[in-house]
Amino acid sequence: MGNVGIRAPRNGSAITVIELDTSWLSACLDLDQRCLRGLWNEEQWRRELEEPQRLCLGLIEGERLLGLACGWLVVDELHITAVAVDPDRRRCGLGRSLLDALLQRARMEGARHATLEVASDNTAAVGLYDSHGFQIAGRRPNYYRDGRDALIQWCRLTPTG
Ligand SMILES: CC(C)(COP(=O)(O)OP(=O)(O)OC[C@H]1O[C@@H](n2cnc3c(N)ncnc32)[C@H](O)[C@@H]1OP(=O)(O)O)[C@@H](O)C(=O)NCCC(=O)NCCS
Q1: Cα of 147 to ligand 1 centre, how many Å?
Q2: Which of 11, 27, 43, 161 could join 65 via S-S bond, C-beta 3.0 to 4.6 A?
């Protein structure tokens, strides 16, 4: 995905968006543990990285995975399943770049809408999605293990070209 390469806002070194494959499995597991409270186990991550209907993009700096964004393509919808940025590198625009790249990739695959669920008190993620035009379409009470509600959000994707 050469056209979505970006520059690191902090130290000027190159940060690139790539399509992740299984060579990034342990890095995904590690970032998941640090950012997403262990969303998926190793087998689930392997599936995520292998199956063609699943998009999984990473932001890398050298050999280091700084962030990831994943989603499933279902007909003309992108179901976003995970977006995470290394805690040491937040608030530098990396989450925005990742989400831009994921939505752009989904458009190229023919997606016309994107949807996701996000914890209602996740201010950072809600702010990120809001800034990309996601709107709240509903709420699932007690959706998460700790009793938090989930907001269901949708966004219409304008076609490329
Ligand atoms: C959500 C997350 C991916 C944002 O990554 P990030 O790189 O810090 O985000 P960015 O710097 O690109 O910020 C983009 C926009 O998101 C919003 N945002 C990000 N962090 C925020 C915060 N702490 N508080 C409020 N808004 C925030 C803002 O609208 C921001 O735009 P601005 O900088 O112009 O104000 C990151 O906080 C994260 O990994 N959180 C843990 C995992 C998670 O909850 N993922 C989402 C559920 S799947």
Answers
A1: 22
A2: 27
Q: Is residue 46 lining ligand 1, measured as CB closer than 6 Å?
A: no
pLDDT given at position 4: 46
pLDDT band, residue 1 (cuts 50/70/90): low
pLDDT in tens, 49-62: 999 999 999 999 99
**Domains with residue ranges and CATH for the chain:** 2-156 (3.40.630.30)
Give the residue among 96, 3, 94, 17 at the shortest CA–CA distance from 59: 17
The CA distances from residue 23 to 28, 49, 60, 109, in Å, are: 10, 9, 13, 23
